[in-house]
Structures are given as C-alpha cells and as structure tokens.
Amino acid sequence: DQQVKQNSPSLSVQEGRISILNCDYTNSMFDYFLWYKKYPAEGPTFLISISSIKDKNEDGRFTVFLNKSAKHLSLHIVPSQPGDSAVYFCAASVYNAGNMLTFGGGTRLMVKP
Amino acid sequence: DGGITQSPKYLFRKEGQNVTLSCEQNLNHDAMYWYRQDPGQGLRLIYYSQIVNDFQKGDIAEGYSVSREKKESFPLTVTSAQKNPTAFYLCASSGTGGQPQYFGPGTRLTVT
Residue B52's pLDDT band (boundaries 50, 70, 90)? Predict the structure, then answer.
C-alpha cells in the first residue's frame, strides 16, 4: 500500500515557465512533508519542507502548498531553469515519531531551454 | 566541512560474497538511515538507528545487517542472503524533532 504517491512519472516544461509537481498521501497521521531533488547517481538534496500547521511555505523560486483536506501537496518552481532538471521526490513523516520518512516514487522534471 | 560520506562510490562483488558499505557523518546527528533505490523507483528504507547501539529494521531489511557502535558511523552489510543486491544504496542522517534527513552521495553496488 503506497502511502505517498507521485502520479506523474515525468513532466516537461519550458525554461522560464512554472513547474508544478504533485504528491498525494493517504495516511492522515502525516504532519510533516518534504521535497527532495535528485540527480542521477547522487544522493537526494533537501529542498523545502512544510508542517501541517501551514498551507504554504516559500523559499526563493520554490513554494510548497499543502491541502490537508485533499491530502495533497504540490511543489511550484518559478521560473523553471534547465538546472532544475532532475527527479523530485516528496516525502512525509509523523513529526514526533522518530523522523521516519515515507517517499513517493518520484517525478522526473525536464526543463527545456 | 560537515556532511555525510559514503564509500566507495562504485562497488563490484561476486554473488555469494558479503560486502560492507561505509557511511560516516560529522553533523552530530543522532539518527542515521539506509535506503535502497532501484531504477525508476523511490527510496525504500532498509535499516535505521535513532541512537548509538540501537537500530531497527525498515521495510526491506531481509538480507542486510547493520551496526551502530559510534554516533558518526552506520555501516551496512549486504549479505549473500539478499536476493537482488544490485542497487544504489543511500545513507542519510538527521537531528531530532522533525528535521530533514540529509543524504550522502550513494554507493552503486553491482553483484554478478
């Protein structure tokens, strides 16, 4: 049973436009959500997180939105740059339960120049 | 220069041999984790340790073993009992209280 799902395996966007990556979860106990970026043959890099007490968190070009009622979060990248081309993973955890992360399957973002 | 190191980057072994992957961190993190990534898939948790001398099985612990004798180190042994050991292995660490996990560069293990 996949508790965190990224239903789009890939996304292609033109440079300068907005990239929107989506993630759904089923476990209502999750209250802390993270996005990671991963290049091939490298470890994931932490991008941005959000706790369930917020519905939006922004860091530069990256904004994460959380819709608790829909159990849905999204990562917006504006403007998209070719260097953003990578696989993006969303992850979820229960804040006071040992920091265990459950990962989605990832979405490959391709930003075309 | 704080971070997580994994060595080696690439590792080749013959079937039937045990192999140990190294993971070291100097971030003073209490918790450490081992994940496995297969092509086109997400990360799956193998083992984790919240504190020295204690560790717990993750979702896919069969065929693996770990130790946590020092705060800085969390080596993973891939035993001959692991049916499909060829994969990309990632080590991570985190502080307490809902902090992000930070990952090492990974080790690609190929068993033939």
Answer: very high
